[in-house]
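The aim of this short unit is practical: by the end, you should be able to scan a pair of folded records and say something sensible about each. We start with the first protein, listed as its amino acid sequence and then its structure tokens.
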Amino acid sequence: MFEQQKTTLMEILEGSPNQALSRYAEWLISAVVLVNCSAVILDSVPEIHAQYKDFFHELEFWSVMFFTAEYLMRVWSLGAKYAGDAWRGRREYIFSPFGLVDFFATMPYYLHVFFPLLDLRILRVLRLLRILKLSKYNSALQDLFSAVYSERRAFGSAAFLLTIATIVSASLMHFAEGHAQPEHFGTIPHSIYWSIVTITSGFGNVDPVTKGGEVIALLTGFLGVCMAAIMTGIVASAFANQLSRKKSAYQAQLRQVLADGVVSDAEKDALKRLQMQFRLSDKEVQTMMEQAQAGKTIE
């Protein structure tokens, strides 16, 4: 019963190219998320809160109703994902990162209803987590995690070098400035804090007063620039490799579809879904299509 409605709703909410309404649903959810996050930011300003608090409370109530309805519809519709096992698709969603984000998007309101004495600052932070819902419609955050994971060995090596540099810099600074500024460099742990801040920001908030300390601070700042360049290079390379892997996967699927010379409607839908998943532009897809057809002609 209602299986067709479940499937249709699931395709709309999951962004299927088979449903024209899926794009409008994506825009609507994204707009509500952006309006909510903007309202949370503005509501933290005392003057604005005093003048528009009733409006913000009303907006929060209807937004929570919207997100709650969206969450329940997703849970219900995903029962159609696997035939014969409705709760398999639902469990996958509920305990997935996107499902947890959708769940916690509504929790601040209900927490405030049942626990009115909770610190409002904590609730504001939790409400701002709603912006993570946008990652469902943009693969940038997923690409970042995938890129970092794929280059985990390089990041591990860079982190190892950073740890060594921090400890050496802190030890030298403790030796050079420990007697002159014992409140800041009296122990190596205190110096480690200074070293970390200096390497990451370029300035450790404490000026050295000895000549040796000035030299060490200068070298530590230069080391921070070098580490930033290394990390930037790793991230840039990881993103480029991630995009290359997406294009290679799409090209492999495209060649498989064109192998028999006939492209069925199901294969077109599969290619369209893959294009949306990989966030490839129509121009990029057209270029890959021409390359695949040219390669097939040569063969």
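Turning to the second protein, read its sequence before its tokens, just as you did above.
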Amino acid sequence: MIIVIFSISNRHFKDSLKVAILLIPDLNVIMNDTIISEEILLKEFEDKINAEIKIEPKDWMPVAYRSHLIRQISQHAHSEVIGMQPEGNWISRAPSIRAKKILLAKIQDEGGHGQYLYSAAETLGVSRDQFIQWLHEGKSKYSSVFNYPSLNWADIGAIGWLVDGAAITNQVSLQRTSYGPYARAMVRICKEESFHQRQGYEIMWKMMEGTKEQQEMAQDAINRWWWPALMMFGPHDSDSPNTSNAVKWKIKRESNDRLREKFINKTIPQAELIGLTVPDAKIIKIDENNYKHGDINWDEFWQVVNGNGPCNEQRLNHHKKYHSEGAWVRECAIEFNKKNN
């Protein structure tokens, strides 16, 4: 049997389609059977989703579902690894041995998170080398928040408290995401991110108990990191082309705006407790547990996402440099694995 594969939507194939139908009498039957089979598979897939049954790597899944996961999980992995850079700058300048040890442990955790997530993403049929290549070519993104500089020790506190706090808000719901390998990776990541958030808050709390200069440093840090942290949740749902299917297929369990609201509602009381003020003159307390925030500068967000932030070039060049210089380590690991298997 000859099976002709083509794209009906491509105008170059329209005439060929007419000819093929004339030459292959059973082609209409083959096409109809294929369409019906895909409809059945899609229904089975969506029934699993609705029944809260995890989708596993060998299960059938729509192309759009696989593509969305490849994009989201790889970007998540890139963010964990790139996110090590602004904190790594302060390992040698931490104010105490205790602070240094905690920061080292945190950065090590972030590297591990990247490992879990790249492994989860590879189950979708794309190699880690390909993910890295897409990152280096600018075809794959990472969280825009890591394109801002860490200017002093208070920034390390703000990153831990605000950036990791925003990450936890999003990632807790991802423990229930519909794709099994992603959901399982998130369980350990969320436990470790909770430690990171507490580490950052402790830094800010201690600084607010310190000198006037230290208090000013802490307030300056929250002034600079508050809005980038809010941008981490992504654009408004009405402006996000990926939200609809992501929510429908339960890749995302909550919308961007709802997650942002949750983060704001829990973070403002934490700030007030230690004497810090969020830099939003339009913030309104709606009731005991809810706040309405001011306008986010989405022009700045898209500038940073599109590569024009304060540290975009620096972050990517750093990753390229050390990925290249570390090639021999990966080669040795591969050879060692071959000899022992």
